[in-house]
Every structure is written in C-alpha cells, then in structure tokens.
Design goal:
mainly alpha, 2 strands, 456 residues, two-stranded parallel ribbon
Length: 456
C-alpha cells in the first residue's frame, strides 16, 4: 500500500482520501485503526527484505505511519494505536534500520550516551517508568534519528515523496479540525488557547501539526510541485492550514511554520545557481509579495472571526493585561514558560553536573511544580545537568553545519528550514510529539540530483 502512496500517481485521490479519513475519524476510531495497520502490515515484506531503494522505503514507512500519532490521539484509538505511538514505533523502526546497517551519524551515539546517567538519578523520589518514557524517549529518538538519517543519500524526487508522505496525515488532522469545530458564531473567543477550534483536543499539539502542514504545502506550492495535482487547490490547502492554525490561538505551532517559511524565502532570494545574484534576489522578493499579502489577508479574516482577539493574542495580551490589573511581562506573553525556564535553571545551579534525574524537575521546581516541561532546553539542563548542555550544544552544532551549506541549493535550504522548525518546536512542545525527532532526522539527509549521483 505504501508503494502507491510513495509513487503518488493519483495525487488528488490521496488528498481526498486523507481528508475523508480525517473527517470519518471523528465518528469512530475504527476508521483510522484498520488503515494504519493495513499500511504497516503490507509494508513489512518490503522493509524486511533488502531490495533496491530499501532505505527510502523504510524511511517512507517511518515518516508516514508515525505522523498519524496526533490523529490517533484525537480520535481515541488507544490502546489499539497507543497514545504515544509515534515515540514507540519511531524507536522500534529506527533501531531496526540501524541494526541492519543504516548508521552514519555516529555523533548520535554520543548524544545517546549523554542521556544515560540521568536514568540512574531521581532527586524527587517520585519518578516512575511512565515519567521516564514520557520525558526521555523524545531526545533518545532524536539521537537515534541522527544515527539513522545522517549523511544518507536521497534523490530530489525521493525527498519530495518523503515530504509528501509527511503532509498527508497533516491533511487528515486539518479535516478533523474543520469538521469537528462548531460554528464560529457559537464559539466564544478568549485570549488563550482554544480547545474548540482545535477539534476538541490539545491546541498546542494541533497548531504544531497545522503549522507543519502550512510549511510543507507552501514549499510544494512555491516550487510548483503540485501536491494535489492542481496549483489552485494547493493554495487553498495553504490558506486552510493557516486559518485553522491561527484560530487554535496556540501561537507556537504557527510561529514555527512561519519561521520555517521565512528561512525558505530568504535563501530563495539570496541564491541562484549556487551564486549570489542581485537581479534574482529582487525577482524572488517580488514573487514573495503575493504570499505575504495572502498571509495578511488570511490573518485579517481570522482576526475578524475572533472579534479582534487573535491580534491581541499574538501581541501577548491576556484578560488581565487588557483590563489593566495585570502587568504584561515576558512570562505573561509566553504563558508561564519563562518561570518554568527560570526554575529549571535554579535546579541546574543546585545540581550542575548530572541534574536531578529524568522526569524529576516537575516535582522539584519552586513556583512551577507539577507543570509538564514545555522547553526541552531547560529540561535537559535541570534533569541531565552539564551532560544535557553538551547534548543540546551538539544538536546546535549540527544545525550550524546545515546553516553553512544552506546557500548551496534550495534543497539544502529546505533541510535547514526543517531543522529550524524542529528546534523551535522544542521550545513550546519540548520533544513530546513526533515532530522534533522526525524533522531533525530528515534534516540530516544528503540530497542529490539524479545526474549527480556518480559525482557523489
């Protein structure tokens, strides 16, 4: 089944199929469950048997099946599709790929070893196995993804197919949100994340996937790759992803998608045939103007639906700051994340070398006790100490290497944009979803034009 998805011979059919899949998942989890296992089980023979393009086939399965993590949560497929299926299945498939020989990113093993000591520590005395899995499997998967994906060669067409597979489950989430959301007239928009406009689920996770969807659709639309087969329909998908993401009132996901799009626009205006060209830069800036205008029109439309509250939300306002009885501070603007960061730094000061142990920080913070981590950097520092700092520095170093070569081709630029989106997501959703580990892994690929393969 995955073969037909990968080849994408009927793009419009698969867009409609995944839209219907997302819509019907509202009615019953048994709409998604059979499809998930059909794809997984029918793909096993091809990934268990080493054939031509085996790495790409295995990677396609990884990208597609774990991307259904959020839709599974939204439609209540657990335990048949576990709540954190993305983490578990990603871990299993990565381990399989590494064991059979897809391992070039040895730096990932060092990152993995840096996480081990904190497993032996629990300064709170309250951490169980569930807490360890919840907090640690994300960064473990990042390390394994680097081992598996780094420096693996994929052609430009294979990269397009992988990104297309990544976008399809996001379209299902979009359909779920559109159909499940009540009429806007019946929604009271307030200056906080909106549960109803997120399809009745966690707005932070939903907006993250919708922001990713907007970014991917933009890339296909901008390069005339025809995600659906029709350029006007791709533009419609881009608008829908943007509107619905904005109306969740969860800012992180949409800001992350916008930053990734900005990275693409910047490098497209700065490069042409791998060389700087002022004329080409001006031409690309002009081409970017319609996209910017569309965004402002979409934002204005969404803001009008919300009665003006959307603009206030993105300005960091709350009911208290608007009423005048609460000061607008950075902590207010970033919804308590600054306090979590400060408390984590204080724990790191008290436990500088090995930290307080995996999952223990939420029980030991002074002012933000029992608040789940939303910033992976501060969690690494407080729970893993100096080793966590080294882990994050290695990750940033890998991103810097992408930055240095991003001017070479627009494919290198998209790898950088993918990495930036993944890293930004760790600052508002930590590594609790599949997005950061998967995107960091994909950003480690080496993309080549088919006629360059002999040179590589």
């Amino acid at each position: 089944m995955l073969k037909y998805l990968f080849e994408n011979k009927n793009p419009l059919f698969w867009i409609i199929f995944h839209f219907i899949l997302g819509g019907l998942s509202i009615l019953s989890p048994w709409v998604l469950i059979p499809w998930f296992y059909l794809v997984l089980l029918t793909s096993l023979p091809s990934i268990l048997k080493r054939t031509v393009n085996h790495f790409v086939k295995l990677s396609g399965l990884i990208v597609y099946v774990i991307s259904f993590e959020l839709l599974g949560r939204m439609s209540g497929t657990s335990p048949f599709i576990p709540y954190e299926m993305g983490k578990y299945l990603f871990f299993i498939l990565l381990c399989y790929g590494i064991l059979i020989g897809y391992r070039r990113g040895w730096i990932g093993l060092l990152m993995l070893f840096l996480l081990v000591p904190a497993l032996l520590i629990d300064a709170s005395g309250q951490v169980g196995v569930k807490h360890i899995i919840f907090n640690l499997l994300g960064p473990v998967n990042v390390a394994l993804a680097i081992v598996y994906f780094k420096n693996q060669l994929v052609s430009t067409e294979e990269l397009k197919s992988l990104l297309r597979l990544l976008s399809l489950p996001a379209i299902s989430v979009l359909a779920f949100v559109i159909i499940k959301t009540p009429d806007f007239e019946n929604i009271e928009f307030e200056l906080g994340a909106n549960f109803k406009t997120a399809g009745g689920f966690g707005s932070n996770q939903v907006s993250t996937v919708l922001g990713l969807g907007a970014f991917l659709v933009y890339w296909f639309w901008r390069n005339k790759w025809h995600l659906s087969g029709y350029r006007w329909l791709d533009l419609g998908l881009l608008i829908l992803f943007t509107i619905r993401g904005l109306l969740t009132f969860s800012r992180g996901g949409m800001i992350g998608g916008a930053i990734a799009i900005f990275v693409l626009i910047f490098y497209q205006t700065a490069t042409s045939d791998y060389r700087w060209s002022p004329q080409r830069a001006v031409f690309n800036v002009i081409k970017a103007v319609p996209v910017v205008m569309i965004f402002f029109l979409v934002f204005a439309y969404a803001n009008n639906i919300s009665g003006g509250n959307l603009a206030l939300r993105y300005q960091g306002e709350t009911p208290g700051t608007v009423a005048g009885y609460r000061e607008k501070t950075l902590n207010v603007v970033f919804t308590n994340r600054v306090n979590v960061f400060i408390d984590d730094l204080e724990l790191w000061r008290k436990h500088p070398f090995l930290g307080v142990g995996v999952g223990a920080s939420m029980y030991l913070r002074d002012d933000t006790r029992r608040v789940a981590p939303h910033l992976e950097l501060s969690r690494l520092l407080s729970e893993h100490g100096l080793l966590g700092a080294f882990y994050f520095l290695i990750l940033c170093g890998l991103g810097y290497k992408l930055f240095k070569k991003a001017h070479s081709t627009h494919y290198d630029a998209i790898l950088l944009a993918i990495f930036v989106l993944a890293l930004f997501t760790t600052f508002h959703s930590a590594m609790r979803t599949y997005i950061s580990p998967l995107l960091i892994g994909l950003s480690m690929l080496i993309v080549y034009e088919p006629n360059e393969v002999e040179q590589l």
